[in-house]
Amino acid sequence: MLEPETERPVVVRTRALTRKFGAFTAVDALDLDVHEGEIFGFLGANGAGKTTTIKILCGLLLPTSGTGTVAGFDVLTRSEDIKRSIGYMSQRFSLYDDLSVRENLEFYAGLYGIGSRRLARRLDELVPRLQLAEHLDKLTASIPMGWKQRVALAAATVHDPAIVFLDEPTGGVDPVSRRAFWGLIDELARSGKTVFVTTHYMDEAEYCHRISVMNAGRIIALGSPADLKAQAGLETIQELFLALVRRDERPGAGPQGGTSR
Amino acid sequence: MTAPRKGLLALVAMIRKEFRQLRRNPTNLRFMLVMPVVQVLMMGFAMTMQVRHVPTLLVDLDQSAVSRNVLAEFRNGPLFDIQGTAYSLDRLRSEFDSGRVALAVVLPDHFERDLRRHRTPRVQLVLDGVNGNEAEIAAGYASAILAAAVAPYGHPGGLHRVTVAPRAAFNPNLHSRYYYIPGMVTLAVMFLTVAMAAMSIVRERERGTYDQLMVTPLPRSAFILGKLIPFAILALVAQTLALTMAVLVFQIPIRGSLWLFFFFTLIFQLSSLGLGLVMSAASQTQQQAMFLAWFFLVVVMMLSGFFAPIDNAPRIIEWISRADPMRYYIAASREILIKGSGLAVLWPEAVILLGFGVVLLTAGTLLVQKRSG
Amino acid sequence: MIQRLWAVLRKEFAHILRDPRTLLVVLAMPLAQLLLMANAVSLDVHSTPIAVVDLDHSPASRAFIRELSSSFFRMTEAPRTTVHLDRLFRGGAIDGIVVIPQHFERDLVSRPAVPVQVLVDGSDANTATLVTGFVNAVAERFSLRGAPGSGPPIALTTRLLYNPEGNTLFFIVPGLAGLILTLVSTLLTSLALVREKESGTLEQILVSPLSPLEIILGKVGPYFVLALADGLLILAAAVTLYQLPIRGSLPLLLVLMLPFVLAYLALGLLISSGVATQTAAVLVSLGGTMLPNLILSNLIFPIASMPRPLQLASLIVPGRYFLDIIRGVVIKGVGISDLIPQTVFLCAFSAVMLVISIKSFRERLG
Known about the structure:
- The complex is a heterotrimer.
- By secondary structure, chain A is an alpha/beta fold.
- Chain A is built from 9 helices and 10 strands.
- In chain A, β1 and β2 form a beta hairpin.
- The longest helix of chain A has 16 residues, at 175-190.
- Residues 252-261 of chain A have low confidence and may be disordered.
- Chain C folds into 2 domains: 2-41 and 167-365, no CATH class; 45-144, 3-Layer(aba) Sandwich (abc type-2 transporter like fold).
- A 4-stranded mixed sheet of chain C has the order 2-1-3-4.
- In chain C, β1, α3 (59-69) and β2 form a beta-alpha-beta unit.
- In chain C, α1 (2-18) packs across α8 (212-242), α6 runs antiparallel to α10 (278-295) and α12 (318-332) crosses α13 (340-365).
- The mean pLDDT of chain C is 80.
- Chains in contact: A-B, B-C.
- β5 of chain B pairs parallel with β4 of chain C.
């Protein structure tokens, strides 16, 4: 399967990446290549191993076995360098409610060692793009969910990272805001950033360049949304996802093409 | 930009954020600054072991001129508040039961006659013994009044009395507040640093912001320092405020060097902040952090010699108390403020406090890291 | 109604039981405080070490020392001179020094007053006050026996009702129980409610068909039980470990605990509806309830000796009345007839607090 993106450099690579918690295997021998500028969708039911994978890639968890590199840095040994190269936004929009939007951004910028002059330049870029001007000096607790989501994205990208990990970034947000948010993700990718995004809204998967479907710690399908649907002869990602998971859970059934086993 | 400079910037961002959050909750901030002051002032006025205004019942079974004169002596001065005079013992017990009376002076039948004939009348002091110390002291006062009042009726040559000439080293007027105020101030400060720092760390964990911070290059040490420094500063401000108020209101003569006192406060704070870190690592919720902090605070306070001298405690408790950093701090602060001692005398306390601080901070940092790793 | 209430109660109990750390602290705290109070911070003068310097060595001075040792159990031998006596205080081995002067016996006959000197360490003013007071009482007792050779003018007997030995634990333990009751009721309640507010689960409960009263009863009920258990625990421990007598009726005590605990639960409720964060709840609870209860309740320091404004302020501190009740029932063994004013105040106070807190809970959240 050759996607146009494959010619671009690989920025996230894992080989046989495995993480066990006691007897439970959360991530099972994962092989993955994500390319620069790609929107890579990571699909799966709750507990499929998505969040564990992201935590390993962000340097929060160590793998039990296997290897992985993010932005060229080994997840086993260079987690501090990885942290400087990535942005991370979780479904909890980890903002300080009792600080204003600007103060939140200033804080996260400070953590990345961004001085005030560079921050001012960065805000000049981010604020119009995310249309935050109106809310900039409001208390974060007082702004609506959809705006909090944008602020969280701004905070996660304030240091202009090459790779952005978005862990269910649209949870609890209305459909209009969700759609607008995907527009922002698209812009990020267009500007050369790699976006690694998990979601369980199947309609959102359509916006991804490539998706992988995870079940029980393994990837059971990988490819562009159009290709995967065509291969299975199905209309929507929703149907595709349910079919894939059902097949995977039937004993003896082999995983579908593009899988990594 | 170099890595250390970036680390420093991250630390500054962290500290700035903490201060902003503190400022955003003015109620909390006000409470944290005002509470120690109120506490110190209230305690300064309230804490005394001196016994005054004992509610007293005079029981005159004799009803003679002499018995009236003797009992009248109890009406002078602030020691006894006379609730009334009774002429029988009937209702005596119920007066004590209801708490209206804590002392009854009972002059017997034929008091005057026996006294004049040198027949040694039996006078009784009945006291509410629930507070044993207060009762004994009140009995002492009452005896003195009785002894003086009956002296003219004694043997020729008068009554020969043993009087007590008290002399207190260092604090001649025996104002309890002198003794309590350094401890009070510390207690207020310690509670602030331990409980509030611990709760604020746990809060980050509860709200998920901690995970977010951990994917940034913010070093864990900068996270911990950034948490602790604002609380240390706040505590120092609160301490200075409370101490200044106490000094002004109670006119405490400060004999030693204030700078030395602040130095000891600073090194003591290392221990309390370390303790706060340990609490935060041991708790999942703010409620747990709060109750753990409270629990340890009570133990630490009781073992510190703040309320009563620890040296009188059983050997084993005295030994345990040596692991209590507050004990050394209380001892040192009293030496400095009341006795005027200098570092030449107090260097062992300084060394011990520094040692505790280093150990507790290291342990706390490791535990916080382990917990999140 | 009962069923719905039970659902809330059960959930709240589950919270408490699921969090063994808090539970442990809440239950262990009274015991630790009791043990420490009994052993470490004992205000017991009987165990205070004092030294006696006898410069007279006469039968009279020895009689005086005998009288002293009936008050102080721990007497230490001291040097025979008065030089460098201050040094004895260093290291804190001794809290007081009594110096009996030369010619003590002779002067007792020939002079109207013979001074005995007491040296105390003034930097520990409480102990110093106590020691001076006790030595004074001893001296007065001694004086009243009369000078050698002549009989005493009066025979004075002193009777300590309720606590003949003057055991300070009798005084401290009931107070401690009261303090723990306040801590558990106010702090735990306000924290539990604010936590639900912070996490948004309180709204979930508020939209359910439960009435505010049911919610309050359900949320507050378990802490009520916990507070009572704590209070009884400390009493039970003091009875078994330190032979604290319970002279009055335990059921009466339990009944009278009700309004007291209710008042503080209501206060916790009030605090929780007024603050947004758990830290604020802690600060307000401590400043608003613990502090006055610690200082203005006769817990350790006598209100009667305080300045007038503090005495007036103490009139609205429920702890003050409750300590009268608990000391009255436990140590004095009195019945309700002697505790009517206190009971009336507590009932009125808790009723007012309940009304205010339920009202504000409704306004702010309901």
